[in-house]
Design goal:
Blueprint: E1 14-18, H1 23-28, H2 39-45, E2 66-70, H3 84-101, E3 105-109, H4 111-118, E4 126-127, E5 137-141, H5 152-159, H6 161-169
Parallel strand pairs: 1-2, 1-3, 3-5
Antiparallel strand pairs: 4-5
């Protein structure tokens, strides 16, 4: 199965980074396409998007100044299928993208994604004290997967900090 296309450009306000595409995303070619994934609902309810987008409209987030990529590009059924080598290569590739494209804020969709990127074990939700790439703001958010046991309201509250943060940067 082929990796799905990143949606990237220079100087994004916000870059979303997921673990890797689901099988459904691999089949459709769109980010967060699994019907059990709550990403699109979270974005809208947190105030990040003016309406609820669908996975098929993922590229339209670029119009809002938001981009999308993954730390690992290979689609899998679950994140636990990703190898250490894939994470290592993905981390190096992601750092290159961040240095080149200079997004203002990077939202890691899942604490585990940020742990793989930063090599930090303990970290809070939200803005991180120190970013991996200077000049960007690293933001750790809960995964939008339907497997996450956190209450939806709590997840939305964490994501709702991002529009506030973006306002202070404009």
């Amino acid at each position: 199965m082929e990796p799905i296309k990143d949606h990237l450009k220079e100087n994004l306000d916000l870059l979303f980074v997921g673990f890797n595409p689901s099988i459904r995303s691999g089949e459709t070619g769109h980010h967060f396409a699994n019907p059990n994934n709550r990403f699109w609902k979270i974005l809208h309810e947190s105030g990040l998007t003016p309406r609820r987008y669908s996975a098929a409209e993922d590229y339209k987030l670029l119009d809002l100044g938001y981009g999308m990529t993954n730390i690992v590009s290979r689609p899998t059924k679950a994140a636990d299928e990703i190898t250490k080598e894939e994470y290592k290569e993905g981390r190096e590739e992601l750092i290159k993208k961040v240095i080149e494209l200079k997004p203002k804020v990077i939202c890691f969709v899942g604490k585990g994604v940020y742990q793989e990127y930063s090599h930090k074990k303990k970290l809070p939700w939200g803005v991180q004290e120190e970013s991996v790439v200077p000049g960007t703001i690293d933001f750790a958010a809960p995964s939008s997967s339907g497997l996450v046991r956190m209450k939806m309201d709590e997840i939305i509250q964490i994501y709702a900090e991002i529009p506030k943060l973006l306002k202070t940067l404009r």
